[in-house]
Amino acid sequence: MTQSIALPAHASYQAALQRQNSLTKPAGSLGVLETVACRFAAWQGQTIPAALTPAITVFAGDHGVTAEGVSAYPSIVTGEMVKNFAAGGAAICVLARAIAARLEVVDVGVLGQLPDLPIVHAKVAAGTANLAVEAAMSTTEVEAALEVGRTAARRAIEQGANLLIAGDMGIGNTTPSAALICRLANLEVDLIVGRGTGIDDAGLANKRRVVAQALQRLQGQQLSGTQVLAELGGLEIAAMAGFYLEGAAQGVPSLVDGFIASAAALAARAIDPAVAAWLLASHRSEETGHRLALEALGLEPLVELGMRLGEGSGAATCVPLLQLAIKLHAEMATFAQAGVTEKD
Ligand SMILES: O=C(O)c1ccc[n+]([C@@H]2O[C@H](COP(=O)([O-])O)[C@@H](O)[C@H]2O)c1
Ligand SMILES: Cc1cc2nc[nH]c2cc1C
């Protein structure tokens, strides 16, 4: 069994809140920036949290369910985008450079070979099976993919990260994500399945049918978190779940990206509910169902930007906001220091 997950330090949260209320502004006037700073205080166990050192790990994998015509793009794009990540040309590469974040790319299940690329080669299988008709993975494969994610989190933390971001790349992965969200949060297919990379109305109807069929296969079965991942998940999604679990076990919070990341977070929570206290949501993705997935996680997104890219891009975009929240918390003068009169 892996290390257990502790609760964030409540006393540090309270001390940070007290500091927020002593800073030269009307109480609560910095809104969510105040609560975010207090949450980092609790995660780091200190009233004034250290500046953030973010690390981004993009997990890539392919999906057998693409045989059902659920994506606007062919599976070959997954590997092609991994090459683009390695060459520094993808959105997440630009964002990682802009926020000075360590960026690592992990092949956990891409179809075909990616020789000589400067990425982490940790392929558990060459894609998943078609979840519409059979389990996407074996539980052994899920355990291996979870461990790939855990190892990646440990590497990031060893190299100094105090904020983790998991990104995903996998043509077809909004289908397993939707299936996981429906099953794990007990939500209706039509509320959760969306257009992903941009399928048309007929494609959407087909994708709903595919997800409904997968859920139907499992109806009435009691399954563990690992078993649900095996039936409905993906290799990169399982790795992301392992990444969140390990971060939490090591006392390092994760900033949850979009739709796929939220499905992975729900899977992580099904494995260990204590992980939830170590998660912060970045943006609300345009993907149908993300709002309900976040609600099921008990997370409030920081921003809504109409994004639906994946790769960890929404989370990376939110990092400067978090850095500002902590800087305000650390550097603003108190009423006493500035000689400003407090409210009556
Ligand atoms: O993160 C999101 O909210 C998101 C929403 C829609 C699509 N994506 C990305 O698009 C790919 C999956 O879309 P699809 O249509 O192939 O299932 C995958 O590589 C994801 O990273 C990501
Ligand atoms: C080009 C492309 C880039 C992506 N990045 C994440 N998902 C993606 C899907 C496509 C199709």
Written overview of the protein:
The protein contains 14 helices and 6 strands. The protein has a 6-stranded parallel beta sheet with strand order 3-2-1-4-5-6, with helices on both faces. The mean pLDDT is 98. With 344 residues, it is of the alpha/beta class. Helix 11 links the parallel strand 5 and strand 6 (279-281). Helix 9 (225-232) runs antiparallel to helix 11 (259-271). It is globular. The chain has helices at residues 10-22, 32-44, 76-87, 91-98, 139-158, 174-185, 189-192, 201-217, 225-232, 235-249, 259-271, 290-297, 313-331, 335-338, and strands at 54-61, 102-109, 120-121, 163-169, 254-256, 279-281. It has 2 domains: 10-50 and 328-338, 5,6-Dimethylbenzimidazole Phosphoribosyltransferase, Chain: A, domain 1 (Orthogonal Bundle); 54-320, Rossmann fold. Residues 71-73, 168-175, 196-197, 257-260, 285, 287, 308-311 line the site of nicotinate mononucleotide.
Taken together, the total number of domains comes to: 2
The dominant shape is globular
Bound molecule kinds, no repeats:
nicotinate mononucleotide, 5,6-dimethylbenzimidazole
Number of helices: 14
* Element-level helix/strand string: HHEHHEEHEHHHHHEHEHHH
Strand percentage lies at 5-15%
What's the CATH H-level homologous superfamily of the largest domain? Nicotinate-nucleotide-dimethylbenzimidazole phosphoribosyltransferase (CobT), large domain
Oligomer: single chain
EC number: 2.4.2.21
GO molecular function: nicotinate-nucleotide-dimethylbenzimidazole phosphoribosyltransferase activity
Family: Belongs to the CobT family.
Enzyme class: transferase
